[in-house]
Amino acid sequence: MSAYLVKxxxxxxxxxxxxxxxxFTMIRFIPGDPAQLxxxxxxxxxxxxxxxxxxxxxxxxxxxxxxxxxxLLKGDLGRSLFNSAPVVEELAQRFPRTxxxxxxxxxxxxxxxxxxxILSATRHLSWLDSLVMxxxxxxxxxxxxxxxxxxxxxxxxxxxWLPAIGHETWRHLILPSVTLGAASAAIIARMTRSSMxxxxxxxxxxxxxxxxxxxxxxxxxxxxxxxxxxxxxxxGLQLGTLLSGAVLTESVFAWPxxxxxxxxAVLARDxxxxxxxxxxxxxxxxxxxxxVDMVYAALDPRIRYE
Length: 306
Hints:
Elements: H1 2-27, H2 34-39, H3 45-55, H4 61-73, H5 87-122, H6 127-141, H7 144-158, H8 171-200, H9 203-210, H10 215-244, H11 247-252, H12 258-268, H13 271-299
Helix pairs in contact: 1-13, 5-6, 5-8, 5-10, 5-13, 6-8, 7-8, 8-10, 9-10, 10-13, 12-13
């Protein structure tokens, strides 16, 4: 296992370098000039030129990228072009809030999706199975911003049960976590159902039933653990997706996380913040994939990494 982890970490280095190169190049093609935005529309060309020189934006792109990588190896992601705050500090302040939202959303998604998938599989081809799949299809198809706005309208504006924006208390977490977890719950439910149906058709499950075991015991002790392996894959990938896909949810609920920071940085053409946020999200995705592989071995003793 140790050798496998070292190998995965080494393979992550070129992946993250590739991500940094793609992001560095693409954001340079975003319409708009950061120097012009900082100087204002009434600024003269000389003022804009001086700002570009002070920011190093007048240098060739390969040199700018080399400087960025050199600073990155030293743990320096640069400073924001607009408030001069270190990007590392900005991300350190925002990332825990995004993690909290993503974990809460994944708890919501798992508590809804896994039981719904098990129920659908054990009631295969019944009206309950069809109902669960219709709801899952609706959950996947529902736009995040549309669901978020409707939850605000119902629970915050009309019923006054929950706050619409902010992050100070656990009550502020409910609406955004439900909004963000709805689509993931639908995906987890569909995968759990598919995996459970495959396992329930196996010979050892039929043998357990033939021995007289109660159906709940057969499902819980013999089928569920083996069915969870593909579900763990989906949960891990969905958690990474929630961390990177919280942009719309954080914008709708004014949640001050990395997603909101990334949106503001794109609108302001704040290159260092965009690069730092994308690299942080990519690194988190890679780490989650490694963690999922480790969970595989815990769920199935037959799995070994050489």
